[in-house]
Amino acid sequence: MILKGGWVLNPATNTQEIMDILITEERIERIGGGIARQFHGEETFDCTGLWVMPGLVDPHVHLREPGYEYKETIHTGTQAAAAGGVTSIACMANTLPVNDTATVTRYIREKANAEGIVEVYPVGAATKGLRGERLAEIGLMREAGIVALSDDGFPIRDAEILRLVLEYARRFGLPVIDHCEDLTLTKGGMVHEGKTGTRMGLKGIPCVAESVMVARDVLLAEWLKAPVHIAHVSCKESVELIRRAKERGTPVTCEVTPHHLSLTVDDLFLSKYDANFKVNPPLREESDREALLAALKDGIIDCIATDHAPHDAQSKMVEFEYAANGISGLETALPLALEAGRQAGIPLLSLLSRMTVEPARILGIDRGRISPGGMANLVIFDPEKEWTVDPERFFSKGKNTPFSGRALKGKVMATLFHGRAVYLDENNPWGLTPICVKRS
Ligand SMILES: [Zn+2]
User: Fold this and answer.
1) How far is the CA of 153 from the centre of ligand 1 (A)?
2) What is the CATH number of domain 55-363?
3) Burial letters for 195-232: b for 16+ Cβ neighbours within 10 Å, e otherwise?
């Protein structure tokens, strides 16, 4: 297969150039100019005017399977990923049963091999049942294929347990992803604590509920010299703590979601209590959003993660206070991140590195780059294509998005996984039948 004349964006080498890419079987064989002239009769995608980039790596996704198949399955979740240009996803452990044993890890991997459209890397629970009391089967889960540890959905409340998790994880070379939330400060909270939340008459979740845990985590990581990765950073105080920790050489990394880069609590207010804006951590203030954009620009925030959290309609179509937290984010992440990047003046390759090589580096997987001999996981993207978000057209079962009706710029035209097209957009420029399927 040949990708001809695309604008090849490779964040790993910090290069962007018009080139051809020759793919043989599942790997990239050659990259360069004039390849298309030497090979005739091959399957050719004319990529003139389009971007060709590495398949995105998303380190924070909820696939809901096993246990919550009515919200999402490995099949539909990976379809959503392919449609969003994501070819590698790390899936969180808060399934039913929780992924706290090698048996569940193996189940997820086998199911992903059989039904997944793209690659799935399971994240193991740090503690049994996500209860924060006893450690999970870390060594056995590692053998079964987990790439990280996290109790995401919940924080690890007990500092001594977190210490043990960090020490074990370091021994096994696994990153620890912590959901930073002091539950004693967020109890009953639904929206960001501040003027707007008060106006809405809803109990608040203050920024300090996050930052107090970020402070604890970075201090422990610094003391133990053990890496910690802070999930979905949402406020400026957390950014400041991470900045100072990094300046001291602490092994801390962190991520931000597209929704925290794009929306604030005022958007929730204007939505008139639309539960699709309800997410944890909550949408914050404009000053927080600006601090997140600035931190992404200067590298304090390492990567962008969707925290894709699909829900069934029932979980959201109730009073705001009873509605589930979360946003179905895989299919809107790339154009939203590009929009945020443009607003913040982040160079394109730098921004794309936060969705490719940087998350891959944190997870310790060899993905997110375009290189000869490397796996042909690629995205062909039309940067000019304008489209309107319609959740009914999502591949994800989760239609819960606050971006419904929003005009976005840039759309994935094709996603290649192991050298084969697994996604072809309905408006693809080659006149090919749209698909979103597993290819063996
Ligand atoms: Zn979380």
Assistant:
1) 4
2) 3.20.20.140
3) ebbeebebebbbbebbbbbbbbbbebbbeeebbbbbbb
Residue 212: its pLDDT value, please? 98
Q: Based on the residue annotation, tell me whether 307 is a catalytic residue of this protein.
A: yes
Q: What is the CA radius of gyration of the chain?
A: 21
pLDDT of 41 strictly over 80 = no
CB neighbours of 172 closer than 8 A, spacing ≥ 6?
138, 139, 142
- C-alpha to C-alpha distance for 177 and 410, rounded to whole angstroms: 30
The CA 233 to ligand 1 mean position distance, Å, reads 10
- Assess contact for 180 and 161: CB atoms under 8 A: no
Question: Is-contact 241 208, C-beta < 8 A?
Answer: no
Q: Where are the domains of the chain?
A: 2-52+373-436, 55-363
What are 56-98's pLDDT values in tens digits?
Answer: 999 999 999 999 999 999 999 999 999 999 999 999 999 999 9
Q: What is the pLDDT of residues 1-26, one digit of tens each?
A: 999 999 999 999 999 999 999 999 99
**Tens-digit pLDDT profile for residues 289-331:** 999 999 999 999 999 999 999 999 999 999 999 999 999 999 9
- Residue 34 gets the label, from left (phi > 0), alpha (psi -120 to 50) or beta, of left
Q: Are strands 15-24 and 27-32 parallel, antiparallel or unpaired?
A: antiparallel
Helix, strand and coil in the chain, % to nearest 5: 35, 25, 40
Supply the pLDDT for residue 19: 97
How remote is the CA of residue 133 from the centroid of ligand 1, in Å?
A: 18
pTM of the model: 0.98
Out of 58, 100, 307, 382, the active site residue is 307
Cα of 309 from ligand 1 centre, angstroms: 10
If one counts every other C-beta atom within 10 angstroms of the C-beta of residue 407, the result is 10
Nearest to 289 by CA among 266, 309, 260, 311: 260
C-beta of residue 204 within 8 angstroms of C-beta of residue 149: no
CA–centroid distance, 7 to ligand 1, in Å, is 35
264 and 285 Cβ atoms separated by less than 8 Å:
yes
At residue 40 the predicted structure's pLDDT band, cuts being 50, 70 and 90, is confident
Q: What is 2-52+373-436's CATH topology?
A: Urease, subunit C; domain 1 (2.30.40)
Query: What phi, psi does 419 have (nearest 5°)?
Result: 80, 5
